[in-house]
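Title: Request for sanity check on Multiple sugar transport system ATP-binding protein prediction

Description:
We are preparing a figure and want to confirm that the structure record we downloaded matches what your pipeline produces today. Could someone re-run it with the sequence below and paste the raw structure tokens into this thread? We only need the token string, no images.
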Amino acid sequence: MGSIVLKKVSKVFGEAKVIPSIDLDINDGEFVVFVGPSGCGKSTLLRLIAGLEDVSSGQILIDGKDGTNLAPAERGLAMVFQSYALYPHMSVRKNIAFPLKMANMPQAEIDKKVAEAARVLNLTDYLERKPRQLSGGQRQRVAIGRAIVRQPAAFLFDEPLSNLDAALRVNMRLEISELHQQLKTTMVYVTHDQVEAMTMADKIVVLNRGNIEQVGSPLELYRNPQNLFVAGFIGSPK
Ligand code: ADP
Ligand code: MG
């Protein structure tokens, strides 16, 4: 459960080769961070994995099976967006329950799953509130809750904290890391923030103009950056 393999994946928009060709292994349970400057193709790569964009060529294996042409809902992955995309008229409980309702899960089971997600995310006391009655961090947790209840093979995060203020961002970083430790589910996390990448990742993928510059643990990249781009980006003195 939860491995994602990219084989010579490319993406072209019109004339622009945004992703020339990427090979990448994401192992089950890993916390993988895509990092790189704005416009380098992080979101595009994540959207290709999610199935929100079609690859121009190449293959995406999910749990060892070809998922290249599967619709997003069939991939068993959950995308958490930076804009919270909550339903403003629904309570937190209903927002979290929404994907399960859509899947026609029996109400008793829905209640159980929502209660469990709320417990993990410290939202138990907020279940009857509307999104506007929540802080930014709480709203982000609701968005994550909505992903958790589906028990995805992997979570895909696209800069989930970029709308939050600095202090809250540090908090949420820790919360997401703790969540990963609890759930042990694969997480693929996009950020342009080196500190976020260094503190959260098992494995960092440094992207530059749609190419992978280096893949490694935070320590490997820090100690042994393979080129100046990585060194500059990670901020080591080499
Ligand atoms: P990042 O998330 O790293 O900031 P993106 O993946 O959003 O980068 O974008 C990478 C490049 O692809 C940018 O040059 C962007 O303008 C281009 N791009 C992204 N989506 C589209 C699209 N739907 N059509 C045309 N160009 C796009
Ligand atoms: Mg982006």
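Thanks, this matches our download. The two ends are 38 Å apart (CA to CA).
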